[in-house]
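explain this:

___
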Amino acid sequence: MLESAQVQIRDETGWKLSTSHAGAQLMALLKAAVWNASTDAVLAWLKGSPTFAVQVGDLERAIRKDQTRDWRRVAHGLAVQALPSSIELIAAVDVVRDGLKGTRTLAGWLGALRAALQGSGLWDGLQADEAGLKVLAVLRLVQPALPAWERLVGEALWSARRMDLAEFTTWVNQALEGASFSPPYPRHEQLVILPMSQMLARPFAAVVLAGCDEVRLNPSPEPPGGWTTPQRAALGLPSRDDLQAATTAAWQHALQTPYCDVLWRKSDDAGEPLLPSALVQQAQIAAGFPLSAADPRQVRTLAPAPVQRPEPSGQLLPVSHLSASAYDDLRQCPYRFFAMRQLGLQSVDELDTAVDKRDFGLWLHEVLKHFHEALAHQPTANAAEQRDLLEAAAATTTQAMDLGEGEFLPFAASWPTVREGYLRWLAQHQAMGAVFASAETDHSQRLGDVKLIGRIDRTDRLPDGTPLVLDYKTENSAKTASRVREPLEDTQMAFYAALLPDDTLQGAYINVGERDGTRTYPQPELVEARDALIEGVIHDMARIADGAPMPALGEGSACDFCQARGLCRKDFWI
């Protein structure tokens, strides 16, 4: 705000090196060097490294296609292996990372860090930046080193102690936290930003004391460090009384400025009330000020400026492929379909290291696929043998998806209950005469100018030859029950039926849960719902081709977690 008003500023407080761009680049390198670094952490470092930034785009797309969360496994991804340049880039990156392995003395770690910065191209950028030069100086990375530092490293008792990367990273972080960077001063400043303690013996025409609440202006501040009172006295460090006297002296000196504004907040960021500092309250009492002053703010009338609902046309963006989820977007909100499907404004999936409910669902789909394929190859009605096949499928899938034992532990604990519930359901399902036919199969069906595409979780055959489409769900059983309550409102099962043109088709959701076990939720009137969906797809695609508007509906729960909400500006509609 001050710079926009063209005020010449002298900032004597600066900011911590840990919050500077140079410090963030260096810490990104150290976070990417740990043995179990996540893929996101390594990519964050590579994007800021001049040596690798140009090539990282193709590698990132391949990694996100493979959905590899851990960097140590990226080379095994199919999409990565299909790009020879990515394999070479990974090898070059690992050369830099390998230089930061093992245990070393502090001097050894500083040399390794200097080599890693140079190998990743960050060294020249740090030397060209004023804050970067300060970072290099604080970490003693500049050459030649100061003679005093060389003597200290060679003679100090701690110089021979070896530390690992985690300990060295902690040391670096503390060093950056303890140092600040101040921008260069102008020749003739109009305003000075400085701590109140540095105002002593310096005349100013006016002063603004901000943050004078009970938290930020404590008249009796806590002494820094973990030293006890006798230890502080033995080391010659200021005591609590000394710090309190210095704070009081700086406060009294500041109040003697000809023009002095004292500001404080009445509440913190969480809304908790804040009182003025005890120093402020003492000054108010001494001056006879009333406890509360009149509000100096003036009431202004602002004219509302709402925006209209967007109603774009998708005529110039023809739809060639349509999936069940895409068509569900169109039914929920045409604008979301336009933004997310036609414009392709999909967000980049985070390669999170934590296993969530969605990962468990993907894992379960693969487990049941391998299980039923093995059971079809080795038919058995024995519960123990089926359990062994299911356990073997679970172990194979866990290894194939690179799910570590630790991160998968919460779901592994519930797996025995889920497994037994599914086996009980399977026994009842097979008693009806249903026979497994296929699992995780891709299907497509041409419908005019649009091709319907989708992957069906599982297809069984009933005794009379009727195909039975099954879709696994790991959601709450109440949500699964709501899917079959109104057949015409359920897009997914009707869409799957459209991929399998058979008028005798049946469909059901299989809710695989821990609490309620495994239950079947048949979808009644599936053929009628399929015919209605096909008619709706033809009608909707024709309207889009004719340039019909695709408004943002802004209704129901569809808006609660919509990725296009920031585009449609629902919160600013009339």
